[in-house]
Amino acid sequence: MPSVLPDGEPVPEDGALPATALAGAERRPLGFYLHVPYCATRCGYCDFNTYTASELRGSGGVLASRDNYAELVAEEVRLARKVLGDDPRPVETVFVGGGTPTLLAAADLGRMLGAIRDEFGLADGVEVTTEANPESVGPRYLAELREAGFNRISFGMQSARRHVLKVLDRTHTPGRPEACVAEARAAGFDHVNLDLIYGTPGESDADWRASLEAALGAGPDHISAYALIVEEGTQLARRIRRGEVPMTDDDVHADRYLIAEETLSAAGFAWYEVSNWATSPGGRCRHNELYWRGADWWGAGPGAHSHVGGVRWWNVKHPGAYAQALGEGRSPGAGRELLSDEERRVERILLELRLAEGCPRELLRPAGAAAAARALEDGLLEPEPYGRGRAVLTLRGRLLADAVVRDLVD
């Protein structure tokens, strides 16, 4: 969740949505994202809306601390119930992200999930995920999470090499994420993800291979691997600008991606989104698929984004301002936008082309269709799906995904 929010039109104080947003809602999946903005320390590459202080006050002196945070989120869930009215949909996915959600007590995360269960109900087979810092959990905590209803967990591993973790300002000890996977399995978690980052300054091919092998050896059923993006305003960006560490170029990123694909495929993982691999369809992150397919989700917490029926909105960024709005009975929404049919078409191409199933060619305008034909000739799109009316990236196409998308959206 980036720390800079976009502009937009005002959100009504009661959070009300236009009737068009709720039309046909019963045919779309509904999920919840719950943002926990607290971190013990700030990683050098992080540009997310996070805060290291244990408590923060808004301009009106309203307290937003770890101690009362679960109740604040529960209050926004109750607001969501009012806004969505008699919407009959049970919630299909819940994802708790941050920050470091596991800085809160497991009971608090359970209380937030309980508010969703009480207000909306949870679908049979609901996926309930939380992110976790490896140093912030142990066997007892994980058992409490599982008892509270969580069945999927995502650990931030990033690298198995100490010097790489140091550049990223990650505080966990190498080997701890792998141990967490075993502890999560013992606690009864059905699905476990490890997040990896490649392209960190000073990382070698050997370092990256070692991280992949360590992750695979831990036995997760899902691995996410992301190229490091150096965001302006971060500590890492300042270090690169001062010449303290080198910038990694795009060719290195491409080489590391190919290493990831080769290593993960050989271990029985299949890609289903450009940066995500799973051992089976059941191991995929259904919550992220909900984003990529343009379904409905409500994001609760400071800076959280939501989308329902073509209306997208985002909350105030600061925890104190968030607490103050809810305390005054107002929506914490900072701004919103109503997406046009054309904007929704473009977003479908942007997101669905990154999936293993690709996007329907019928979404393409003439210029985009011509670009798709060229991409096919250049080996960037798979021939067989193309013949069935779908644009699906080849491995080479995945390396150039951003460029292919730009061409296909005209």
From TrEMBL:
Coiled coil: none annotated. Pfam families: Radical_SAM. It is found in: Cytoplasm. Keywords: 4Fe-4S, Chaperone, Cytoplasm, Heme, Iron, Iron-sulfur, Metal-binding, Oxidoreductase, S-adenosyl-L-methionine. Residues 24-270 form the Radical SAM core domain. Gene3D superfamilies: Aldolase class I (3.20.20.70). One of its GO terms (molecular function) is coproporphyrinogen dehydrogenase activity. The keyword Iron-sulfur applies. PANTHER family: COPROPORPHYRINIGEN III OXIDASE, RADICAL S-ADENOSYL METHIONINE DOMAIN-CONTAINING PROTEIN 1, MITOCHONDRIAL. Belongs to the anaerobic coproporphyrinogen-III oxidase family. HemW subfamily. Probably acts as a heme chaperone, transferring heme to an unknown acceptor. Binds one molecule of heme per monomer, possibly covalently. Binds 1 [4Fe-4S] cluster. The cluster is coordinated with 3 cysteines and an exchangeable S-adenosyl-L-methionine. This is Heme chaperone HemW. It comes from Streptomyces demainii.
